[in-house]
Amino acid sequence: QVQLVESGGGLVQAGGSLRLSCAASGRSFSSYAMGWFRQAPGKEREFVAAISRSGGNTDYPDSVKGRFTISRDNAKNTVYLQMNSLKPVDTAVYYCNRGLNIITMRQVKGFKYWGQGTQVTVSS
Predict the structure, then answer these.
(1) Quick one: what percent of the chain has pLDDT higher than 70?
(2) 16 alpha-carbon distance from chain centroid
(3) What is the CA radius of gyration of the chain?
């Protein structure tokens, strides 16, 4: 089973920025689309961003489009999430995961295994 380790979270004021990283174990990183998800207290986990295997295509929900940018470095087995113009509603634990293609990344309930995640807290 692949291991996904998220990092980079923290406390930031509204309007600030954070960059999250997700390091994946194994040799097949470039064979998978990657995505970021988040779960706020009392809410279901939701899709935040996805990137195709090559990095050529990305997908975002309207709630973060224009503020968040996903990228990947296949040589480092790492996917990133640059978060700008953060809002208090962005407060959540952020997780990464992998999927067969970028389209499936929106199906949050299809993922069985999750890492520990990294906490992002945005103060007003």
Answers:
(1) 100
(2) 17
(3) 13
Distance between CA 99 and CA 41 in Å, rounded?
25
Render pLDDT for 95-108 as a digit per residue (tens, 0 to 9).
Answer: 999 999 999 999 99
CA distance 38 to 61: 12
Please report the DSSP string for 46-115 in residue order. EEEEEE-SSS--EE--TTTTTTEEEEEETTTTEEEEEE-S--GGG-EEEEEEEESSGGGGG-GGG-----
Q: Which residue has 């992002």 as its token pair?
A: 120
Q: d(Cα 40, Cα 38) in Å, to the nearest integer?
A: 7
Query: What's the token pair of residue 55?
Result: 């990095």
Residue 72 in tokens: 């990947």
3-class secondary structure, 31: helix
Lookup result for tokens 């970028």: 102
Tokens representing 40 are 């706020």
- Identify the bridge partners of residue 6 per DSSP, sorted by sequence position: 22
Summarised one tens digit per residue, pLDDT across range 48-89 is 999 999 999 999 999 999 999 999 999 999 999 999 999 999
CB-CB contact of 80 with 20 (8 Å): yes
